[in-house]
Design goal:
It is a single chain. The protein is mainly alpha-helical and 198 residues long. The protein folds into two domains: 15-112; 132-197, no CATH class. The protein contains five helices and no strands. The longest helix is centred in the first third of the chain and has 50 residues, at 15-64. It is elongated.
């Protein structure tokens, strides 16, 4: 079973949620270390292959010219790089085993504390729902005030005999558009007002 790799709660409150948050963080740290070990192993392997090719080329050239091959230093480094690659491989494998242990522990704790964790998730959802309801009520009231101001401005323009001003007024959009746009535009651009007044 695949483990979902995500932060369960932005701010865990319950004991089980806090324990799982610590385990998930430890898992992510081990995964970073494993990734670093694998990258170091791959780099060591690439260096090993490069040195191996260099030794072979040097030996071939020496054989072709009937001279001794000066590869002692490269062969020594070749053994060292092979050992480094093996060490990084062992480290990555050990970290992989540690990650598996943590994942098993996360699954076990999630199963054991299922009700507590689900209750916390539901409580967070209910709180968010209440906040959204309050925000929508506030936005709805603000939209109503903006529409009333729009109607007032139209009446003022009509009474003042400058109906052409209303053509430049921005109507108040619906709630969906207000939320999508992140607000509403000014009722009248100050530049337009100045042009009309002149």
């Amino acid at each position: 079973m695949t483990l979902v790799n995500q932060q369960l709660f932005a701010a865990p409150k319950g004991k089980a949620a806090k324990e799982l948050a610590k385990l998930h963080e430890r898992r992510r740290e081990l995964q970073r270390q494993q990734r670093d070990a694998l990258q170091a192993r791959d780099s060591a392997r690439a260096e090993h292959d490069r040195l191996d090719e260099q030794v072979k080329t040097t030996q071939a050239r020496a054989l072709a010219l009937d001279q001794p091959a000066a590869t002692k230093r490269d062969r020594t480094r070749l053994v060292q790089v092979a050992d480094e690659a093996a060490d990084h491989d062992r480290t990555a494998a050990a970290l992989g085993a540690a990650i598996t242990v943590i994942e098993d522990d996360i699954r076990r704790r999630a199963h054991t504390a299922y009700d507590e964790l689900l209750d916390e998730a539901i409580a967070n959802h209910d709180q968010a729902r209440d906040e959204i309801t309050e925000a929508l009520q506030s936005v709805t009231a603000a939209q109503a005030r903006a529409r009333a101001a729009y109607a007032s401005a139209q009446a003022i323009a009509a009474n003042a005999g400058v109906m052409h001003l209303t053509a430049r007024m921005r109507a108040v959009p619906n709630l969906e558009q207000i939320v999508r746009d992140g607000g509403i535009d000014p009722l009248l651009n100050p530049h337009d007002r100045d042009v009309i007044a002149a």
